[in-house]
Description:
Elements: E1 5-7, E2 10-19, H1 25-32, E3 38-43, H2 47-50, E4 55-66, E5 71-77, H3 86-92, E6 97-103, H4 110-123, E7 128-133, H5 143-149, E8 158-160, H6 166-183
Parallel strand pairs: 2-5, 2-6, 6-7, 7-8
Antiparallel strand pairs: 1-2, 3-4, 4-5
The structure holds guanosine-5'-triphosphate and magnesium ion.
Amino acid sequence: MRNGEITMNALKLKIVITGSYAAGKTQFIRSISDIDPVSTDYDVTPDDERELKHNTTVALDFGTIAINERVSLYLFGTPGQERFDFMWEHLSIGALGYVVMVDSCRPGHFAETLRLMDRFAEITDAPFVVAANKQDDPAALPVSYVRRRLGLPLEIPVLPCIATDRATVKTVLLTLLQQIAARVPKSATPSSASA
Ligand SMILES: Nc1nc2c(ncn2[C@@H]2O[C@H](COP(=O)(O)OP(=O)(O)OP(=O)(O)O)[C@@H](O)[C@H]2O)c(=O)[nH]1
Ligand SMILES: [Mg+2]
């Protein structure tokens, strides 16, 4: 699929959902996808990783969501673990934007998130938003704290997220779409095209 390919009047926008280990990427796609999502989760073997959960994405997640009759998002979730980081580049080809998911309950993983964001900045200059996930958990750090700890400037949206809650997932995606739209030159929009 080329960037924002137009087929039969339908616009399919490729979006990547990334973030550190166990941040909630697979759950995010599962909550919003119109189709049964494709996932590639396998048993986790290292003991320190099994403390958090028992399976992990090794290749990708895939789901789709129709925003309206003309626009659909094709969502590609990445593995979170750095040992599968070769997939980040593959999955980012042709992506118009990406979501960086952060586990708000685990500041110990913020350094990993910073490394991931640096790597994505090398891979693509597409716009992104940060989802401060697991805000339903009493241990979740506030969004403003997550922003400060990650050193994110105000122009990058940092949004509260509960990946199990479709409404917050949708808000994250709509905010990313606004960021993508803001990059489209006015001369490229249909309303500004000359007759
Ligand atoms: N309370 C709470 N739990 C969540 C939320 N999102 C995900 N989880 C849980 O967090 C764990 C990790 O979620 P996943 O969706 O597997 O995380 P992931 O980022 O895909 O993980 P990897 O692919 O292994 O990097 C699972 O047990 C989820 O049920 C959330 O918003 N709130
Ligand atoms: Mg996953």
